[in-house]
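Hey all, quick one. A colleague (J.T.) asked me to put the adenosine-5'-triphosphate job into the tracker so the inputs and the structure tokens live in one place instead of scattered across chat threads. No bug as far as I know, just bookkeeping. Sequence used:
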Amino acid sequence: MNWYQLRINDVLQKLETSKEGLTEKDAKERLTRFGTNKLAEEEKISKIKILLHQFISPLIYILLVAALVTFLLKEYTDASVIIAVVILNAIIGYIQEFKAERSVRALKRMLTPRTKVLRDGHEKEINSEVLVPGDIVLLASGSKVPADIRLLKTIELKIDEAMLTGESIPVNKITSPIREDSLTPGDQTNMAFTGTIVVSGRGRGIVAETGNRTVLGQIAKNVREAVKTKTPLQARLERFAKIIGIIIVGFSGILFSIGVFLHGMDITEMFMAAVATAVSAIPEGLPIAVTVTMAIGVSRMARRNAIIRKLPAVETLGSTTIICSDKTGTLTKNEMTVKLVYDEDHIYEVTGTGYEPKGEILRDEIPVELKDKESLLRVFRIGLLCNESNIYLEDSQYKVEGDPTEGALIVSAIKGGLNPEEERKIYPQIAIIPFESEHGYMATLNKHHNKKYIFIKGAPEKIIEMCTQFKTNNISQKKEILQIANTFAKKGLRVLAFAYKEAPDDMEELAHRDINLGLTLAGLQGMFDPPRPEVIQAIEECKQAGIGTVMITGDHAITAVSIAKELGIGGHDARVYTGKELETMSDEELFQAVKDVSVYARVSPEHKLRITNQLIKHGEIVAVTGDGVNDAPALKAAHIGIAMGKTGTDVAKEASDVVLADDNFASIFAAVEEGRVVYDNIKKVTLFLVSCGFGELIAILTTVSMGLHIPYTPVQILWLNIVTNGLQDVALAFDPPEKGILQRPPRHPRERFLNGIMIQKILIMGFIMAAGTVLLYIFNLMMGAPLKEARTEALTTMVVFQFYQAFNCRSERRSIFRMNPLKNPFLFFSMIAAIFAHLAVLYVPALQWIFGTVPLTKTEWAGIGVVTITIVIAVEIEKFIRRLRRRKTVFE
Ligand code: ATP
């Protein structure tokens, strides 16, 4: 017999479980017996692969060829030094990439899906991986089915099984056994299969199979996501490095020709010089430094509660110009407390805060006697019974299990004197239509003595429209009640209306058509959801950073505007559009409108998608938040889709680029800041590596053109690269955010990476370094210094130049005297280590022999000091001019 053929009781028996679920102890024991609920073992991080990866780069190929040729020319020291450089580069790359990979994996683990189950008789959320056969699982719209499940209860449950069966229409699920033999999964309509998606409704079922024993596991479809994607910037930079490589090889060829053909220099020496040039100028550290910068960004963002799912987001975040955010839970705390109640006679105030069921019902500030307030109690009762949630005490704090809106209604009912357990006993629930945003209401069928009632609650416009009976049955009453709902909303309250009707005795199920008409209104409740205090500041900072904030909410327009004002969204007269208005607008009209609207209310996910698309058309870089199943298209359409970690559905998370661990808007802003830091730091690394390489190249080219010996031997050039570039480029990746990073406008998305400023800087810096080194070199030779001595001084000059360069590159405009060098201790100490290493090369005899150096005299040191400081002075002047120019453009 197959699971789908068995009756529910037989399934329960066979799996030795009950409708109340397993105990934790039993589940633990089963976990060792059945294994974790994972599809395929996660691939281990392959160390060899990462190590080999370090050698797969055109830049490294050039170095290896150079080493081989040098070896054939019997220049053994040079050959070994080149190999040493390659190995050192690989080691640094390996360590950094391994670390990066490990942290990315750790982040991935943070994102493992969770599932609601019944254990020890309670509803609990657990990691889907520890699910075992026999567990009772609760499914709701948006969740991904975590195992193969035999359903035992369904409420309008529809599941999208396209990934398993190819059928794109969601399947209506049932619970009764099916007789037929050998049905395909697509026809087993009382089962829910791993990996499929709940599109709407609710369900409850028994886990029948887990892990590789599920249908999906058996097809052995590999659902592991593509792990490695390169970000556009990474790809561009790799291309850039390749082009530079080619250019440099070309240059080396020219150098060789000039030396040999023009000046008749020794072929071997010239060949070695050409190799040395290529090796020195090639920014072999660039790809690693970029990977590391990204990885650092990813982990910094994670620390600030934004978990990156797709790497390109790290880069895009930095250029975000608009954040479209949900209201409830993201901008506000999603901690609802009912403040006002209306029962068609009077408005009452409810005291108390949070979910602690302590408070009073006041009328005109005087506590009311509740016993004879039948109509008021009815409002509370419907709120309590038309409800899927619960409140419970944990660590002496009251918490909600389920929807905070519903939690608040339970609390207000208790404050109104109702006892939830008693009420649920005398009004047992028979059927339910769960709340879904697109319907805007929820309903239950309850029994009371010999009668049945339908209770319904939802958005006031919706409910009041469905009501035909009011207390006074006055036509104007509808309007009046809507007006009262509006006065509640003006105070920033989320308003729900409550209604009921008697149902036929034989009614057992509930469908939307049963409640469309003939309802009697009971009243309203208005609840407050406090804005998150940190969000007010984040929105203000967004403004300064040139980022617009747009609120897109399912709540009422008046409530939305009131909260928007409190948060500072859209200034004083925040314009608001409702979903209804959007319906009547063409895309063209919406395109015009989105420019100056910052609040959208009562919108559906399709509207969110339209708004996103129109903003994108304006050239904005748009980040959009979402949590529901239907938010997936908008999340995908946006440049950055952000899903809620706590309240988001699996579907939303899978469609997103970033998941917010704390659902908080402020964390989005933090991620944007880190995104800017990543981009800045990649720029710093590039500027540093390319300008230094350029300087070295020009210096060699100049001397060779003049018919002189090159100013440093190949071994010395390689040494130069090890001491000055080996760690410093990676250290720059760790640079903290520059001051004012959030006061400047977002980077233009189409801004070229190597923009005008960068190129100017590379030229200025490169020429100064080359000029300084060559002049000192020629001066020494002219003064009769031996070649070895002149070269040692030239080499040291370059080392000191590049020492300054690491600090110069830390900011585009800020003076180095205004930046604390200790803010980046990694950089600072790697520089100190580099200086000591170079002193060793100058003064330790064995190293002198390898590198062909001689000790320098005090006068020579003084000369180096004077010449090298010019790079600091020049760059300071350049930065000063840039600051002046910017100030001018700001004032114009
Ligand atoms: P946001 O988009 O800002 O996060 P939201 O998603 O919370 O808002 P919805 O959940 O779609 O918005 O709620 C829209 C309206 O539906 C609310 O204003 C309220 O009137 C009503 N509503 C919300 N929750 C429930 C519920 N559990 N039962 C009945 N009606 C509800």
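Adding what we noticed when we looked at it: The radius of gyration is 35 Å. Residues 699 and 770 are 5 Å apart (CA to CA).
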